[in-house]
Amino acid sequence: MKIHPGWFGGFVVSLGVLPMQADPVLLTPGSATWTTTVLDGGTQTVFTVLDDTVLDWAEFRLEAGSSIQFDVLGGGGVVNQLGGSGSHYLNGTVLSNGVVGFFSPEADFEVNGSITAKSVTLSTLGTEAADFLDGGGYRMADGGEFNFLTVNGEVRATGGDVVLAGRQVVIGDGADLVASGALRIAGLDAVSVSGQGARRLRAEGEEGFVLHLGEGRASRIEIHAGREVNLQGTLDAVGGRVWVEVGDEGTIRSEASGIIMGETVFDGLLEKGVAVGASSGDAPGAVSDGVLGVPALTRPDGTKVTGPVRVATSTAVGEAVARGRAKTVSREGSGAGRAVLQRSSFFGMRGARGGNAKAVEPEKGRR
Fold first, then answer.
1. Cα dist from 162 to 115, 135, 180, 245, 313, whole Å
2. Cα–Cα distance, 317 to 200 (Å, whole number)
3. Proportion of the chain above pLDDT 70, given as a percent
4. What are the strands, taking DSSP E only, across 281-334?
5. Interior angle at CA 281, CA 275 and CA 287, nearest 5
6. Which pTM value belongs to this model?
7. Region 81-98: what's the mean pLDDT?
8. Average pLDDT score over residue span 243-254
9. Domains plus CATH for the chain?
10. Which residues contact 94 (CB under 8 A, 6 or more apart)?
């Protein structure tokens, strides 16, 4: 066994010739130290974070079986700047009791392992580290034209938000995103993020897309894209609200497999209906243009919670969606015959039937 110092005061413990994740450069001297231990099947690196910390990784390639832990004793958290124009991947485990961000503005970043922290940001856009760490909001921009952010693993925020951002954001069918705060997904070339619990994401770009195949669960969910949002997975706002927004020329698409739970607002051209209100274990009903299908809800023991509901939208609303941008608000139904869908377009047409749904006045611009 060999022990030798890491950069800027850390220590590396190495054994044998197992491949190791290379050390980062500490851009904030004195803010952190770390040790790396080689174990059977991987490495374990523990960072002791004493103040706001910025780490510059020439290559970030955390293998399966390896782990990184950020033990935050002081400061807001850790910014990991991923350099180069190749690809970075996280196949192992990252744990932290603080705020953690990974930014890869010039290279693909793929997460197949797991990340758990107080709050988590994964981005293929660049940002100012000081703005990110001070907790008052930050802006992300200046990413590569074609680099992808791909998430196939688990991302959990135990005391804040999960933020995913980039021109191309792909959330695979194996992804599991959970946040105690908000789940914020931006397929944009520039976006501003407010402080936790404040305003929603502010889109500043017109390019980008989001493909969601996995599962997302949070107190509220925001998805923004310049060109396209494609929803084929499950989104659960846990009784809160789901916003889905695209740019002026963008499109919101939903396949039959897409399920959204929670009050839902669409801002953009909606090409298909969305199954709303189903539990994560239910198969979504058939959905066609102008018709919202909500399957029967059942408990794990097989007993029925509600019967199936089908709501046909009005002709006027269907025309509004076909002709231009529309806003859609959907609420979970409480029984057959009660309204679970309501729409309001910029053309002033709206429709609602029965139940406890409220009329929504047309908006005059994007928020």
1. 10, 14, 9, 18, 34
2. 26
3. 68
4. 291-294, 297-298, 304-306, 309-312, 326-330
5. 20
6. 0.74
7. 93
8. 90
9. 2-351 (2.160.20.10)
10. 62, 67, 68, 69, 70, 100, 113, 114, 115, 116, 117
